[in-house]
Amino acid sequence: MRRIMNAAWLLGSLMPMSAALVVALAHAAPPSREPDVHRWSKEERAVLASLSLTRLPPVPIDPSDAVERLPAAIELGQRLFAEARVSANGAVSCASCHDPRKQFQDGLPVARGVGTGSRRAMPIVGAGHSTWLFWDGRKDSLWAQALGPLEDAVEHGGNRTRYAHLLASNYRKEYESLFGAMPELEGLPRDAGPLGSAAETAAWAAMDPRQRMAVSRVFANMGKAIAAYEKSLQHEPSRLDRYVDSLEAGRTADLAVLQPGEVRGLRLFIGKGQCVSCHNGPLLTDQQFHNTGVPPRNPARPDRGRADATARVRTDEFNCLGPFSDAKPGQCQELRFMLEDDPALLGAFKTPGLRAVAQRAPYMHAGQLATLEQVVRHYIAAPHAALGHSELTHRHAGGAAAPKHDERAPIDLTDAEVADLVSFLGTLDAGPASMAAAPSDPGPGSERASLPMDSSKCIGLSCPGGRHLGHIELPQADGGLTTVFYPTDTPEASVQKGPFSLSWADDARPERGNGRLVVISHGSGGSPWVHVDLARALVARGFTVAIPQHAGDNYQDPSEPGPTSWVRRPIEVSRAIDSVASHGKLGPLLKLDRVGIIGGSAGGHTALTLAGGRWSHSRFRDHCLQHIEQDFSSCVGFITLQRGDGLDGIKTWAAKLVIRLRFSDATPQGHIDPRIGAAVAMVPFAADFDPESLRQPRVALGLVIADKDVNQVPRFHVEAVRAACEPRCEVLQRLADAGHGAMLSPMPPLHAGSVAKTLLGDPPAFDRAALIPQLNADIAAFFVRHLVPPAP
Amino acid sequence: MYRFISTAFALAVLAATAGCVSAPSNLDLSLTRPTFDNKFLVTLQPPVKPAAINQLHSWQVKLATPAGVPVAHARIKVDGGMPQHGHGLPTRPQVTQEPVDGTYVIEGVKFSMTGWWEIKLAIDSPEGADKVTFNTVVAEAASGR
Which domain does B70 fall in, by range? Predict the structure, then answer.
């Protein structure tokens, strides 16, 4: 009786639809309702947009590091980054001064390794965008940079042969898989290097030149692996990004993410504070060197900054043109056109990026200033430089007259403006919890959650690579397949799946994306292919997407739909998460302590269950015995319709008979997976849920409502959920003209006059082409909101 | 995302580049200019494909006498910067080729931010030495991503 026809498989794909209308309405709101503080000119909006993380281009490829994008290099680099044996005393790792829990810095004025340095440890996330590394830019690549501290006497204090021995003894397999055979180190001194103590340099000089070259190459390769890891770290969106993105999208309600004082500070930042003239772009740095007259830490020996660094980088054996570089000389254009012999370089230091700056006191290149307020006041005071010339204009330098058009204006701010500017700088934080890696409840299969990528994820276009849709199928224990879509850089190819012409990159190498997983639960009799558009929208925001095949309720095997499947579905979701977690390529890229779940129709039932909802067979029975005439297909499935003829009564009678016999169990059904962090139910089957169980969903819950749904009549299902969960859930979209099939995209061909066409076909007024992409985008944004930033 | 807008269109986009410091509204953005002592007529040609912020790119210079005769084998030094920000160019661009007599390729140009930039050329040739300064305004592309 409840056998579901093949055509009905689309049902499952119903989920993603309604968010677009909300946005459309927001756009329609008259601009006069926008509070004044959020009023920006077109020019200002362009500047604001330029700061958004979504504008960050992919991390440039470094031709001098051939392994930087290899997962094995990232993994080795991550281990070496935390390896304390890479030091003279066995106690200093890269992470000692670049602590992943502290924005990859140490909170100290000057770095402390085996000794005390003379400058501030710099944060690492985003460093792959820099042409020149260190405060003075004395290195021209991330891998060359990583080598500097390793053999610096006061940082790691180690030496090249010590590191080569360490790698040979402890990381040989990993090293050789990336770089080929480890050279023969037998008989080489334990401690030797060109920069160490007298004994170390003497031992180095005594080595055969070929041995020195071979050891230096191991050393360089170590840097390349560390750089690969560092380059994989990405920034998380900040409140400023949410503000700017909301402004661009016209979501005026979301502008409240910044307080009025913070918005005033933002106006100063891009206006008369002149901050944006150097702190520009998505990383809030121009990556260049400036003398701004910051007082030296040691006035007796002021730091010459960039002026001393250009000769060093030019002669560095590890530079782009050197023997250990993987680049061709023609790829080293930055060195070729490097600015040298310019007096402006004296006392100049690199503009630091400002993301999460409020969490990184003290400030300036040697931690000279303790607070951001002091920093802002420094730019107002604009003191003369101790060495070289400050680019800032002193307020009284030119007398009372206004500055000429061709010089920098002094920066003049009131105390209130200073306070606003400082409060604005706090909006650049990615979120306080994000740096403290520990997942609250790991749950099964989430052992990879401790990977440090949690400190820095990207969204959408800010993700390095991953612009294409990758596709892989993972076998399920029950014989089905979990379909996984993910970001990849591999170009897509056309694929035909049943009636669907699709494209993706099959079994392509995954990119890290935003490190989060969303599971799509297909509808009754459904397939993954009717969710490809939603999956693509999610992948575009950096998500990996898994679509398990629900046993006995899919397009290949529709034998056990309804409550039998509803019991299994949430468990199948948990297994799919496990399966992705243990996949060799996908698992290491994901942090699975906050996973999204979305489903439509029966898939919406799955999502509601995982959001904490409890249902029972007897509630299903009771609903159908009471409302089968008004909600016929919910109770009977796709096999037949009520057609207003003499058979309706017989159909109803038969259906009630079967339902009464089969669905008497009153045991509440539920399934909690602690990894689930947000859920979206689209046009769900939900009449069998206990409303009490949905009053306080255990995770963020979004609903998609299609007002013209004749398959799951809204008032019995999604509206009942809404009535129970509001205000602790949100209606992502209410699609006034949509039917149940609005959540299928691509939409399968439906035969005119078929049951499926009646139950799933779009009503004539529904503008699928306009509304579905918007809905998918809004669903992706919902998951970014609730999964990508840490929970408050 | 970021686009370099050629000087020919710069006036139209001037307002859009404002940021914190607006370029003066009367900026002379002409791409063909006589040198300071009128010894040469110089035409600056921006790259065909606009370069992004902080990307190295190339320009071309056409050097001629005031009468329009191409001047070959000149030595040209490139300098410049942002007058309103008090800093120079982030790189040291160089003339690397003279593919045709009187046409020179400048490589290694980079702009680290939007706004008003000066490009200064110091020309030394058998016909004499002279200088010229061009103004250019680097803008965000409104639509670019």
Answer: 2-140
Res A539: pLDDT? 93
Q: How far apart, in Å, are the Cα atoms of A415 and each of A293, A412, A418, A420?
A: 22, 10, 5, 9
B95 min Cα distance to partner chain A (Å): 11
Per the CB < 8 Å rule, is A407 touching B86?
A: yes
Prediction pTM value:
0.60
Q: How many CB atoms lie within 10 A of CB B49?
A: 9
Give the DSSP letter string of B31-66: SEEE-TTSS-EEEEE--SSPPPTT--EEEEEEEE-T
**How far is residue A298's CA from residue A282's CA, in Å, rounded to a whole number?**
33
pLDDT digits (tens, 9 = 90+) for A238-291: 999 999 999 999 988 889 999 999 999 999 999 999 999 999 999 999 999 999
Number of domains in chain B: 1
**A289-320 pLDDT tens trace:** 999 999 999 999 999 999 999 999 999 999 99
Q: What Å distances lie between residue A780 and A532, A539, A706, CA to CA? A: 13, 9, 19
Domains in chain A, start-ordered, CATH in brackets? 6-16+462-787 (3.40.50.1820)
Identity of the residue in B17, B108, B142 whose CB atom sits nearest the CB atom of A336 = B108
Q: CB of A57 within 8 Å of any CB in chain B?
A: yes
Tell me the CA distances in angstroms from A263 to A27, A246, A255, A752, B20, one per residue in order.
Answer: 21, 13, 9, 55, 15
Cβ distance A131 to A287 under 8 Å?
yes
Q: Does B145 reside within a domain?
A: no
Look at A405 and B24 and tell me if their CB atoms are within 8 Å: yes
The CA distance from A417 to the nearest CA of chain B, in Å, is 15
Residue B111 maps to a domain: yes
Q: Does B107 lie at the interface with A, CB-CB under 8 angstroms?
A: yes
**Element holding B133 (H helix, E strand):** strand B128-140
Which residue in chain A has the smallest CA separation from B112? A286
Could you tell me the CATH number of the domain that includes residue B29? 2.60.40.1930
Main-chain phi, psi angles of A485, to 5 degrees? -110, 145
Q: Write out pLDDT tens, residues A609-656.
A: 999 999 999 999 999 999 998 898 888 876 677 777 777 888 888 888
Closest CA to A139 of A403, A350, A378, A373: A350
B86 and A391: CB-CB below 8 Å?
A: yes
Residue B119 placed within a domain: yes
Interface test with B, best of A131, A280, A291, A320 (most B CBs within 10 A): A280
